[in-house]
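Fold this sequence, please.
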Amino acid sequence: MLLAYVTLEIRRTLRDTGFVIFGVGMPVMMYLLFTNLGVSGSEEDKAAALAAMIGMAAYGALGSALAAGTGVAEDKGHGWLRQLRITPMSPSQVVVGRCLSGSVTVLPAILAVLLAGRLVNGVDLRLWQWGAIAGLLWAGTAPFTLLGLGNGYRLTAQTTGVVNVACNLGLSVVGGLWFPTSLFPGWLRAVSRWTPSHRFGELGWSVTGGTAPHLGTVAVLAGWTAVFGAYATYAYRRSARTV
């Protein structure tokens, strides 16, 4: 039953035209704008284009992951959550199922930005690096999917959309996905190191440097995944009182 539920949610999401346009097209457009305006083709510009490719791929994946929560909030209004509660699936299974479906739907955003980096900006990486970047960014979206789900189960559809957009922009900027953290003041740079979005970006940036992600990066992401997972499960249980 869990597999059938995950498959259903994936199909529903990928049929959404708005998701394809904004979840996939927007990160690609921003990446190309950031890396092709006022550049001279120097080595510094090439390095910046490479870092921006990772940042925008992470930004697109983060937004797509959070969008899973917006869909959940809309489902509450349609009565879909009431139907799920009469199935044999437990609250944890429902949350895990939605998280798995959300993790699959982030792949188009990641792959689209990486493809733009290779075909348009000529980013040159080894084959294993391309695969490792895509795989690590895909796996690293789990905490953001859970955060979006928690918001969706806890809030109304309209409020969830606003909160998820705020989370997306805030985490992306503070996490250094849009601008390098080297440009931040010292106190903000220190804060950024503990955000899940910065550690998420480090998964890809480490690969471009030819190294594996640092143990601290994995630990911070695992910690945020546990926190947001508990939040999502709690929010799903609480929603049973009103839905």
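The chain has one domain: 2-239. The CA atoms of residues 143 and 225 lie 4 Å apart.
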